[in-house]
Amino acid sequence: MAMANPTVVLVPVWGVGHFVPMIEAGKRLLAAARGGGRPLTLTLLIMPAPTEKRASEIADHIRDVEQDSESSGLGIRFLYLPAAPAPPPAAGAGAGYSGPEEFISLSMQQYAPHVRAAVAGLLCPVAAVVVDLFCTPLLDAAHGLGVPAYVYLICSAAMCALLLRAPALDDEASAAGGGGGGGEDAQFGEAVHVPGLPPVPPSCLPTGLVDRTVPAYEWFVYNGRRYMEAAGLIVNTVAELEPRVLAAIADGQCTRGVRPPPVYTVGPVLADSTPPAAPPAAEQEAEHECVRWLHSQPPRSVVFLCFGSARFFTAEQAGEVAAALDRSGRRFLWVLRGPPARGEKMFTDGDLAAILPAGFLERTKHRGLVWPRWAPQREILAHAAIGGFVTHCGWNSALESLAAGVPMLPWPWAAEQHYNAFVLAAGVGAAVRVEVDRSRDSFVEAAELERAIEALFGDDGEEGRKARETALEIKAACWKAVEEGGSSLASLRRLSDALHQGAVDVLPASQDSEV
C-alpha cells in the first residue's frame, strides 16, 4: 500500500490580504514539490471569521481554490475549526483592543487547543504547521505534537528583520530609560537600527511599535521573540529585492549574534485580483472601463492612485488630492471609494459629487479618470500607460507595483505601511518619499503631493529617475526569481526538501496523553 504524501497544515487568519497570499504561497509550494518529484499536500484549518462580511469573502475564495485544486490536481483540503470564545482585551471587558497584534495573538491562544486537536486527527504524515506572522501562540500546538512549525510572513524581509530585532530593541529602550511608564518613555526617541537598512525614524515604525505602553507593543515583541522557535521563516519577498537585509538576518545581526531559523524567500506571491463581490458574468468577460481608458493614454504617462481595502478620504483630504492633480497637469487614474456603511468594514461606491471640489471633474476630464468603485489594481499596474503609483503601501500592493516595474509614491496610513514606505524609498530605492503628517491621520498637503508627482514624472529629478530605473530592474528580478534557476523557485525547493525531512506521523488524539 502506497504511503500518503505528507501534508503541510496552513493556519491563515481571516483578513483576505493575509488569507489569499498564504494560500497562493501554499499552491506554489505544492507545484515546486511536485516538480521535484516529492509531492506534498495542503491542509488548511479555517477559523470562523469575526464578521459575516469576512466569512463571505473567505467562503468565496475557498470555493475558487477548491475548483482550481480539482482541475489542477493539487491536493488541497479545508478543515473547519469550532469557534473559540472571543478573548477579552488586556484593558478589561468593555475596552477595545489596542491593535491587531493584540487581538490576533489573544485569539490564537484561544484557538491553540482546536489546532492541536485538528492536527492530531490527521491520518497522513504531517510535514509542518505554518502560522501567520502574529499567530505564534499556535507554535505551542505544533510543538506539543512534535510537528515542525514555520511562520509565513506576507510582508517584507525588512519587516521580518524588525520583528526579530524587536526583543533587543525593547531591552535597549528599557535600559536607556524608556521603561514604558508613559510620556516620552512611551516612544522611541531616536532612529531605530535595523541591520541592512538606513536608520529608521520613529515616525516610520509600524503602529505596533509606536507606543510602548500598550498591549499591542508587547505582543509585537512577543511574536518576534517566538520566531526563534520556528523551524523556518517563509517570507513573501525576492532575494534580489532585499539582499542586505536578508544577509543581516542570516548573520544573526538582528538576533544578538544568535543565528535565526532559515529564511525562505518565495515571492513575489501576488494575491488574486478578483473583486470582493464578483460582478455579473457579462461584466467579467468585458474589459474593465479603467483598462479601456488606459489604452488611449501614452506609455508611462498616467499616475495611478489607489489605496487598498481599508482607506477612504474625507472631503478635506480628497480636496487636497484634487488640487494637486489639477495643478500638476499630469494624466491620472484615481480610484476614490466611499466610507463603509454603518457596522461594515468594506467600502461603498464613492459619491464623487459630494466629496470632490466643484468643477474638478469637468476641468480634468480630458486627462483624468476618477473611478468610484472597485478596480482591477493588478491589471491596471501592468498596463503600459501607468508611470507611477500613489499607494497606501500595503506589501501586497507594493509587490504588485514592483512586479509591474512601476515606481511608487507611498502614502501610508496604518499597520506596517509607514515602515514599508521607508523601506521602499530609503532601502530599495523604487519610490519617491511623500511627507505624511501621521499626527493628522496621515494627512498630505496638496503642495507636497504635487511636488512628489513632479519629482517622479519630471525629466530633471535624480530621485525620480533612480526610482523609475530601479523599479524596472526589480521587475526583471521578480519574474526571473520564479523561473527555473531563479532564487524563489530554488528557495521553494529547499523548503520542500526540509518539509519532507521533518514530516512526522502524529499520534491519534486518543493515544496522546496530553490531549
UniProtKB/TrEMBL annotation:
Q: What class of enzyme is it?
A: transferase
Q: Which InterPro entries match?
A: UDP-glycosyltransf_plant, UDP_glucos_trans, UDP_glycos_trans_CS
Ordered alphabetically, the record's keywords are: Glycosyltransferase, Transferase
Q: Which domain of life is it from?
A: Eukaryota
Presence of keyword Transferase? yes
User: PANTHER family in the record, alphabetically?
Assistant: ANTHOCYANIDIN 3-O-GLUCOSYLTRANSFERASE (PTHR48048:SF79), GLYCOSYLTRANSFERASE (PTHR48048)
Q: What is this protein called?
A: Glycosyltransferase
